[in-house]
Design brief:
With about 130 residues, the protein is mostly helical. Helices cover about 75% and strands about 0% of the residues. Keywords: Membrane, Transmembrane, Transmembrane helix.
């Protein structure tokens, strides 16, 4: 910012005007905040395609992995929304995700820890790696 202050007379003028005039400050803040938002919204609306033919063609050309992941994600979302409708406690999902654990379909039985290696096994593996070197 010091480069702007030292080199740009325009920047100095803007700073002086915003400091001295509340109306200029609010106008400048609106121009800096609202105008880019409106431009972004317009660009998103222009580039968004709700063409059913295009969507059908993209789905037809999709890879099997993409289709499978879409189906899995749809099932997970349906399960989660069903739990929300039934007002079930879903905090265990977040706890499991933070611990890096996998969830099954049964509530409170869903949490399945990632299997950990024993220290003795990891020590043996480290010794084998050292011996190879």
């Amino acid at each position: 910012m010091s480069i702007l202050w030292e080199k740009s007379e325009t920047w100095r003028w803007i700073v002086r005007k915003t400091r001295d005039s509340k109306s200029f400050f609010f106008t400048f803040a609106t121009v800096c905040g609202v105008v880019p938002g409106v431009i972004g919204y317009c660009v998103m609306q222009l580039t968004n395609s709700r063409n059913p033919e295009l969507e059908a063609r993209l789905r037809q050309n999709a890879r099997p992995e993409s289709l499978m992941m879409g189906k899995v994600n749809q099932e997970r979302l349906a399960e989660y929304l069903g739990e929300l409708q039934r007002k079930q406690d879903t905090n265990d999902r977040y706890v499991a995700a933070l611990k890096g654990e996998t969830l099954t379909r049964n509530p409170y039985v869903r949490i399945q820890p990632i299997p950990k290696q024993d220290n003795m096994e990891s020590d043996k593996e480290q010794k084998i790696e050292k011996d190879k070197k």
